[in-house]
Amino acid sequence: MVEKKISITDVARRANVSITTVSRVLNGVATVNKEIAQRVQKAIGDLKFRPNPTAQRLARGIQNTAIGFVMPGYPGIFHSFYAVELIRGIGHGCESLRLDLIFHITDGTNPLRSTYAGGLIFADIIENRAQVESAVREGTPCLVINHIVKDLEVSFIAVDNVKGGFAAAEYLVNLGHKRIATVTGNMQTQAGIDRFEGFESALATHGVECPPDYVYKGDYSRRSARQASERFFSLDNPPTAIFAASDDMALEIISVAMENGIKVPEDISIIGFDDNPAGLFGPVGLTTIKQPLFDMGEEATKVIYEIMTGKQSGTVRKILSPDLIVRESCASPSL
Fold it and tell me: Which stretch of 112-116, 193-197, 310-314, 323-327 has the lowest confidence by average pLDDT?
């Protein structure tokens, strides 16, 4: 159950003063009667009220507020198309709105000092749920990217990963493939779970079996994709198509295939997820599922700013649709 947020109205009622008086005390206006100011401060302490730093700055006429972007610190973060595109989208949004951007990499174990920013954007919820819950509890405007949050009163903008996984598998089935394998994303992430769910659902819908040997639990890294593809290619009855839950993994599978004299797409079809531009410049153009990462980051910045400035009340929940991008890495099976 979400705790009730303490508002400036609650403080005013507790101190038996007007909201304007509370605002003047919060903003350090010297003309407020000392006894009244002390009464307001006591009410703030009793209620554990945490004023919105952005609202305070705006009340003083300071428009250049800051947004904090919180991202899980995983290996290779600055080589990740996912991370770079989100940073680029949020950065572009901040530039357009004349906002400062503070980037925070976290492992989820330490509490955030959220007073440094008027609002927080979380890139997914991976082992840092406590930080999100704390921000919501303290009344800090916050929004989660790339995670559909069903059990917490927080805004989010996410991609329909189930739909993306379904589209990838269905495209391969429609090409005539019956032996379809997958390298999943990190199954501790909602994206990894949902893409695999969509993949399985599409195969089941079309009556295509997916034996355990055709599923490799990856982690979005090229290393896991290499291990997966080496296992797939050594099977007595290898797959004729592979869905990789990220383009980085799909590109690594293509590399392993070429090293083993396996032609793409003549011998095996490969489809990825992301629409990383790197997929355009390999031996074959990579067919993929495009998720609008830049747009998601930019939209998140606009939404959090509207929440910070009071233009948007309540939670904002948006689920964006991914798109199938057809290139040269998939074809009908030759066997």
Answer: 112-116
Topology of domain 161-291 in CATH is Rossmann fold (3.40.50)
CATH 3.40.50.2300 boundaries in the chain: 66-160+293-321, 161-291
- Please answer whether residues 252 and 229 qualify as being in contact, where contact means their C-beta atoms are separated by less than 8 angstroms: yes
pLDDT digits (tens, 9 = 90+) for 51-102: 765 555 555 544 447 899 999 876 667 778 888 999 999 999 999 998 999 9
* CA within 13 Å, CB half, 86: 23
d(CA 104, CA 81): 18
CA dihedral angle for residue 69, residue 188, residue 323, residue 288, rounded to 10 degrees:
110
Burial class of 232 by CB neighbour count within 10 A (0 to 12, 13 to 18, 19+)? buried
Reading the block at residue 322, the tokens are 């991914």
**Preceding amide of 292 cis, omega within 30:** no
The DSSP result for 178-233, as a single string, is --EEEE---TTSHHHHHHHHHHHHHHHHTT----GGGEE---SSHHHHHHHHHHHH
| 307 token code pair | 């929440």
Question: Alpha-carbon distance 130 to 277, whole Å?
Answer: 35
In which residue ranges of the chain is CATH 1.10.260.40 found? Answer: 8-51
CATH superfamily label, 8-51: lambda repressor-like DNA-binding domains (1.10.260.40)
CATH fold for the domain made of 66-160+293-321: Rossmann fold (3.40.50)
pLDDT single digits (tens) 227-286? 999 999 999 999 999 999 999 999 999 999 999 999 999 999 999 999 999 999 988 999
